[in-house]
């Protein structure tokens, strides 16, 4: 009789089974976890980090050409494959040259566009900066004008206070009756159009 085993374990996962475990498609997270686990198995080993896209290059041409083809019209069918390989290499060389030219043109176009965008950004920044400076100067001018008006009002106030104190001193000197009339009739006009009545 066989040993009773847990029914929920698949046959491939059973430790008594000799079958290899099933390989499943890895999700991106499990693939990354597997790669990290593999890297940590031997931490002293150097890790090669790719430096970017590799440029396609052709193998250098041979220094010695063993079977030079002639231009005779009666070339045999044995030379057909040699001719096809030679033509394929030449077409690949021309394709790579065209690709290189196209990449250089794209790079120049990209740099030109970036330069234009940078120039536009600088112009917009300068325009906004000038607008902000004008606004700031206008605010400073309004503030200075307000400060000047406040100083003028303070001067007028001081002049009115001096006039009132002078009138009070005169009234004290001339007597109480004359002083009362003066106090009631004190009107001081300033150049700003402010009239102050002193009613005590």
Provide a concise account of the structure shown.
60% of the residues lie in helices and 3% in strands.
Stretches with pLDDT under 50, minimum 5 residues: 185-190
Instruction: Count every beta strand, where a strand is a DSSP E run of 2 or more residues.
Output: 2
Can you count the helices? 3
Main sheet characteristics: 2 strands, antiparallel
Average of the residue pLDDT scores = 79
Give me the side-by-side strand order of the main sheet: 1-2
What oligomerization state is this entry in? single chain
How much of the residues is beta strand, in percent? under 5%
User: Over all CA atoms, what is the radius of gyration?
Assistant: 50 Å
Order of helices and strands: HHHEE
Shape from CA axes?
elongated
Our measurement of the CA-to-CA distance between the termini, rounded to an integer number of angstroms, reads 127 Å
Q: What is the SS-derived class?
A: mainly alpha
Estimated helix fraction: 55-70%
Detailed description of the structure:
The protein has about 200 residues and is mainly α. The protein has a domain at about 80-155. The protein contains three helices and two strands; from the N terminus they run H-H-H-E-E. A two-stranded antiparallel sheet has the order 1-2. Helix 2 (about 80-175) runs antiparallel to helix 3 (about 175-185). The chain is elongated, with a radius of gyration of 50 Å.
